[in-house]
Specification:
Shape: rod-shaped
Helix content: 55-70%
Strand order of the largest sheet: 1-2
Number of helices: 2
Radius of gyration: 46 Å
Structural class: mainly alpha
């Protein structure tokens, strides 16, 4: 298959290959078996002095088995991440429920303390009235005894 490319000063392909001829582009022939590599790693290819396209020797393997393995690994990662997300959602729900329970318990306890506080205030007021009444009675009795003597 023919592609049209431009190259840098060192002869490396420097733009994405085109299928149609353009001004300033050079025609190169790419074998059908190399097409996938060339289109993916075009900037790793070099054009030699004779105009032939030279593939680098260190291109990654992109065989079907490798791609299937990569897909399976990604599926495993997605499954693990989904499990982690579900666990975090459960933990968050538990924490929110615990927080709501604590808030309810605090509110109920606070109401009980308020009721007890009001009850104690009433008892204190009643004691104060009783003490004031008793001291006035004692003062009146003392004054009456002194006048009678």
């Amino acid at each position: 298959m023919d592609y049209y490319i431009t190259k840098d000063d060192k002869g490396f392909v420097d733009v994405l290959p085109e299928l149609e001829p353009k001004d300033g582009y050079t025609k190169v022939e790419v074998a059908e078996t190399d097409k996938e590599y060339f289109l993916r790693y075009y900037d790793k290819y070099r054009v030699d002095d004779d105009g032939r396209l030279q593939a680098p020797g260190n291109l990654p393997d992109i065989s079907i088995d490798t791609l299937v393995n990569t897909i399976n690994q990604q599926q495993d990662q997605i499954t693990q991440q989904t499990s982690n997300i579900n666990g975090l959602q459960s933990s968050l729900k538990y924490a929110i429920d615990a927080q709501n329970d604590a808030k309810t318990q605090f509110t109920n306890t606070n109401k009980q303390f308020q009721v007890q506080f009001l009850s104690l205030q009433k008892q204190i007021l009643e004691l104060q009235k009783a003490i004031t009444g008793a001291s006035q009675t004692t003062a009146t009795t003392d004054t009456t005894e002194k006048e009678g003597a």
